[in-house]
Amino acid sequence: xxxxxxxxxxxxxxxxxxxxxxxxxxxxxxxxxxxxxxxxxxxxxxxxxxxxxxxxxxxxxxxxxxxxxxxxxxxxxxxxxxxxxxxxxxxxxxxxxxxxxxxxxxxxxxxxxxxxxxxxxxxxxxxxxxxxxxxxxxxxxxxxxxxxxxxxxxxxxxxxxxxxxxxxxxxxxxxxxxxxxxxxxxxxxxxxxxxxxxxxxxxxxxxxxxxxxxxxxxxxxxxxxxxxxxxxxxxxxxxxxxxxxxxxxxxxxxxxxxxxxxxxxxxxxxxxxxxxxxxxxxxxxxxxxxxxxxxxxxxxxxxxxxxxxxxxxxxxxxxxxxxxxxxxxxxxxxxxxxxxxxxxxxxxxxxxxxxxxxxxxxxxxxxxxxxxxxxxxxxxxxxxxxxxxxxxxxxxxxxxxxxxxxxxxxxxxxxxxxxxxxxxxxxxxxxxxxxxxxxxxxxxxxxxxxxxxxxxxxxxxxxxxxxxxxxxxxxxxxxxxxxxxxxxxxxxxxxxxxxxxxxxxxxxxxxxxxxxxxxxxxxxxxxxxxxxxxxxxxxxxxxxxxxxxxxxxxxxxxxxxxxxxxxxxxxxxxxxxxxxxxxxxxxxxxxxxxxxxxxxxxxxxxxxxxxxxxxxxxxxxxxxxxxxxxxxxxxxxxxxxxxxxxxxxxxxxxxxxxxxxxxxxxxxxxxxxxxxxxxxxxxxxxxxxxxxxxxxxxxxxxxxxxxxxxxxxxxxxxxxxxxxxxxxxxxxxxx
Length: 735
Hints:
Strand content: 5-15%
Helix content: 25-40%
Structural class: alpha/beta
Mean pLDDT: 90
Number of helices: 27
Low-confidence stretches: 321-333, 581-585, 729-735
Largest sheet: 8 strands, mixed
Radius of gyration: 30 Å
Shape: globular
């Protein structure tokens, strides 16, 4: 039987769960049982927990339905726990180093208590000094274990469940479990404090609570705030049944109603039903007010009196001076030109056009990437929807015939942005775009992240300087309703890079559908259009952008490479889209395809891919064709840009660190041998998880047609997928 069981609910925190689990497993005190509680098999957090369970027997994952909330998750963990003591840890928090050793030592000093209240640290998500909100409460308590009467201010309702350790036998004896619903910490903490015979405190920090950028879920607007009163009533009813003495009853009552009044006075938390909340709270106040209870002084005391008297109108008037209801329409848009600004603000007052979808790709580069694939599928499945693509003026001529578009910055551009019910982008819309209530913003992304992205870039000065204001970046992210991913790795990394309240759609990338739907005739046509000679093997060389370099540098002498590997090869050079300058780099056997709009078509034309750290490798892997990583400056790139995993340890194929090594791989055919295929298979298993040819259909049905998730086409298993045929002229083995 372990000394401690640590229960970790994990709903919605898969991207940060590893840090929580590591903080437990790396404790200097190792007699611990770690119980991650996941939504169910196959969910993102379950995959993380399973990896840990596979390498450490102390990890015992359990499952709980997400519909049961955090209370259900913690109760599921409690039913599975076998330790002497139980601790709770949120999936995005961490145990402080040596916390369990300190707790074990404290228990030896105090003797067995029922509850040990511990210090915790609130760590700002971005910048700022950590705070220890429990420190003043714990400082007043005596040493050793003592009856609750000696510290009546420790009511249990003001400290979160993860700020205490509970003797498991005590919980079982009193049949204590987390009450259903929101604000479950209030109910559980109050009931545990009422049942405890002896308590103790540990003044050092045990848990580092990482404050979410989007704040606590409990503080968001909604009818769930009425459930706070359910928890208050539960605790006060139990206190009355026990005949709780006034010395303890008054602090408990005061702390509970301080929380109630804070909610009642907060218009954003209760956009509807504030009067009903206030009335019910007043009934509870009058029914459970302890004899001799003295209201606090100042404004809070006035609020107590108004609540006791049921004077809602006076209460509302008291708070009116501080009321500031925010909304999207109060933000001032910044289109250029006074007339355009006024026109945009006027359009924002008009009703949303429920049949209008606005698309944009790569800041207006044309009909490309995921937005283009979604648009094509929407024309098939939702022909009633009107589509408008946003483009830069010089890209308008590249759009398909008959496509409706708006040039970025024009009045028409602002008109459609103001009225559209659906906005789809693979990057982000301008800062000035207002997220209207009822509109739906879909971020499709445009690759799988190897390099650090979003808020994760902050620790890398070069790229952070180029990114600009992270506050503005995250304000744009706050507009998202959905974020699309093509694999579980992306799900976890986007959660870290873009902390916000949007929903993740693990549907695959629509642009990659073509890798499973293209025919041999399509491949042959594309090769002709790109100028690939008949009978030649086409090597696609696609290097990524270097944040520490100015301008485009290939890092590889392609002419010399062609001379070394033989004349049966041609090289398709595709620079990063930052350097789209036409075909200036084309010569002889080097065909510059940077200006070709569709990277998917270029990939279909290639027999093999040579890249460095570009995300194109994740997409190309869907074709199950050879990939070579040319990593001549990996160490510099990793230090300057930051990466999410070690590509040298988990590559999609053979790795070359010099041009000589690359030429040798191509000459002897080892770039496509059995070892290379094994590396590619493992890479595909990890990163081609949801790309199966039906991603666009899933997106259109869910986002644009509103179909429920269970009605969508399931993801086809990787082993059952058939990639587009490779170019007929190649065998990828040197004769």
